[in-house]
Design goal:
Two copies of one chain form a homodimer. Chain A is of the alpha/beta class. The first copy, chain A, is 39% helix and 19% strand. The longest helix of chain A has 20 residues.
Chain lengths: 453, 453
């Protein structure tokens, strides 16, 4: 239509999309994560994008960040428009899901969920903050009680994921909420100030010491204590040193937390995670108040600027607002959109070992369509992704398209090849070309696909 | 928390979620569709859930059905809340995507997209109408011109998908917009009335003849013509009969459309789709006005009540509102949420040949955790999905959990087994149990997994 009707095409700020090559790489990460989650016996669920607003705001949901739905025209009795809003995480929908389907689920309920969430945060691409992004969550939820072993298993799943992702050295850092609360007790922080102090401490890796100490003092701590507490939380130590420092705090809460941390650390080793991949670290604080036991964050050793790529923790009651059943659990979440964006910037993504664009059947001779289609059908029957070039174009243009789209092999045949029941199999990476007889086509293509990788 | 705080848990009307067993089956369908799309050389893209409102309303988007975003609290300068709305299909986002990234894409651009869309329609579960649902789309878009062969290829992709889905006999029904417009000309329908008449005809398989004729008369047709046109469109005929009836209409538009239909039908056969799986059918009308050539619908032969499970068509200009480049294309869309719901009701879904819940390692002896974990690690290393039961529970309860969750094999070992370096491998379907030595564990489990299927 007319030039004057042009509409602004830019994406909404905080929303992202990829070109096909990047989408393929993103999808490969999702497949990898999903395969590892399933390897550990987690089953998939998906929940609707929109929930009742009161479900989302019941527990920890900051109203400020929630997108509600409305209708451009009159909504009538449309519940979604009148009462619905987009989920901001996958934990609240999980709580609602477990409460709603409690009788139909097998406990311990181990679920994974890989879906988009929406948050009205200020988008800052350079900090990897988006308004729409993927989360990849696992949770183990049981009725009444949950073994502490579940807290040790979670890092082993995450270890399996990031090891296969081959994104360099990483460390799953763990801490324990009891330890943190015990320390605050020892530093004389009154119960009512605990959430504020935790939120201030949670920023220790993003803000400078002066700012954190100032915030702690605003929560009522004396300058000396604020400094000591900040130093304790932000200091870099190995697991053994951290555990011995904690041994000096004698309150029962600290001692209980220390014992839990020691047990979880020992079990994590039994679950096969080497010491090089996890760390007991008092700097793991987590802002959310529903965590009660082990808490997790994960960082790339060589790229601390990327921040935590995966975090979560243990909670004592998942769905108290929705059901009377006590549902303790433990979970962790990979913020995949952010992780992907950072890995791409840091050039840490592995090249794909497989592309869906495998073979392009070029079509020099329009009269021979049926023969081209038969070759394609034979290859597809053997599981080889095959496209037939259907537009009228010179062979050079067809090969240029093949290269641009990332095909690995092109088939070339015209009258003379067909007369001899032959086809040329061209490896687009090495530019090698060999002739294959009709009946050995599949084999010849397979060997060309292998040669290249 | 307290009983008095309970919140309503029901999903918003028109929104769905599944239990894990159903989710697995749904995911298997998505995997199958994706594999087939890739087999034909389509590349994946995803677009943001929200677009600028003016993008969505530019072309065919009925404002009435669009969900806009807003914020529960003050939105400030949040573009998404002030200007954003959820997509209602995947075609408008594709148009915006191609216009935005035109220079970075290889043409012909063949993309698939499997994502959720949202429509504020009146939800009617019994008719399979949802407010949030998955669409699985493929489109081929080229610059300036597009070969009619692309119109013949689309049915071959769909044939490949539904054949593998094994949901019984189906027919891809095709028609041509030129034929329809030519017929309306012959029946004296003025240009301005064409959209209204097409919309009336499009309902012929859902409404009775009297209602359709009444609607046609309201568009200005005489009763005699309305009856003849309705009979022509709704009559059940084989492809050959339909083509010969069309031969009698001599206007150039009808003749051109007939020639296109004949050519596409011949090419569809060359693409390997048997006559039993497609049909030239004047009853395919499609309400949308942007189609200009071949149009498609797909029905299950044994279950006409399910309605069209896949539809689309050829268009001459995808993105006229967004770019000056002429972008002709052809596409088709599977409404998967609706299809899944109908297949489930009609009990047409194939049982899964593979479940992620393969092996449960039961844990009779808490002291031997490390041994249980080693077995699990060995199995996972061999690609076998394996869960370790981590809660303290009697063996009967553990086996009940294994059955409930659908595990296929349970491993059972206690002190006496460990003393002999043995483990019991129990096939949960056949209830057979055999003892395996430590070093033959993987092999024994593999053979138990195979036996069952």
């Amino acid at each position: 239509m007319a030039r004057d009707k042009k509409i602004e095409l830019d994406l909404l700020r905080g929303f992202e999309e990829y070109l096909p090559q990047d989408q393929l790489q993103f999808n490969a990460l999702i497949d990898l994560i999903r395969r590892n989650f399933e390897l550990f016996g987690f089953l998939p669920i998906e929940t609707p994008s929109a929930e009742r607003r009161e479900v989302l705001t019941s527990k920890g949901g900051s109203e400020k960040e929630i997108y509600a739905l409305t209708r451009l025209a009159e909504a009538g009795d449309d519940e979604a428009a009148n009462k619905g809003a987009l989920r901001f995480d996958l934990t609240v929908p999980l709580a609602r899901y477990v409460a709603l389907h409690e009788r139909e689920l097998a406990f311990p309920f181990r679920r994974y969920q890989i879906q988009r969430v929406w948050r009205g945060e200020t988008p800052q691409a350079q900090k990897g903050r988006f308004r729409e992004f993927y989360q990849c969550d696992i949770d183990v939820v049981n009725r009444d009680q949950l073994s502490p072993l579940a807290e040790a298993e979670i890092p082993s799943v995450i270890y399996s994921v990031f090891r296969e992702m081959a994104i360099g050295e990483f460390r799953i850092r763990i801490n324990n909420r009891k330890v943190l609360k015990g320390l605050l007790q020892e530093f004389g922080v009154p119960e009512a100030k605990v959430p504020g102090v935790l939120r201030a401490l949670d920023k220790h890796d993003r803000e400078d010491a002066a700012k954190i100490r100032h915030d702690l003092e605003r929560e009522g701590m004396r300058p000396g204590s604020a400094g000591q507490l900040h130093e304790l939380v932000s200091g870099k130590r190995e697991t053994g040193d951290t555990l011995s420092i904690l041994g000096k705090f004698r309150s029962s809460l600290c001692q209980q937390g220390l014992k839990d941390l020691e047990n979880v650390a020992a079990a994590i080793r039994q679950f096969g995670v080497p010491d090089s991949a996890f760390l007991v670290d008092l700097g793991v604080v987590r802002g959310l108040d529903y965590y009660t036991g082990t808490i997790y964050e994960t960082t790339l050793t060589g790229h601390p600027e990327v921040g935590s790529i995966c975090s979560g923790g243990r909670y004592d009651d998942l769905a108290g607002y929705f059901t009377n059943t006590r549902l303790p659990g433990v979970g962790i979440s990979i913020g995949l959109t952010r992780l992907f964006s950072r890995l791409r910037e840091a050039k840490l993504l592995q090249p794909l070992d497989r592309t869906p664009a495998e073979v392009l059947v070029t079509t020099m001779d329009p009269q021979s369509l049926e023969k081209y289609l038969k070759m394609a059908a034979a290859l597809r029957g053997a599981g080889v992704n095959t496209e037939v070039y259907l537009e009228a174009a010179k062979i050079d243009k067809q090969l240029a398209y093949a290269n641009r789209k990332g095909f690995r092999v092109a088939l070339i045949a015209g009258e003379s090849e067909f007369a001899n029941n032959m086809v040329k199999v061209k490896n687009l990476a090495t530019r090698e070309e060999r002739a294959a007889r009709d009946h050995e086509l599949v084999q010849a293509v397979r060997s060309a696909l292998k040669n290249e990788s």
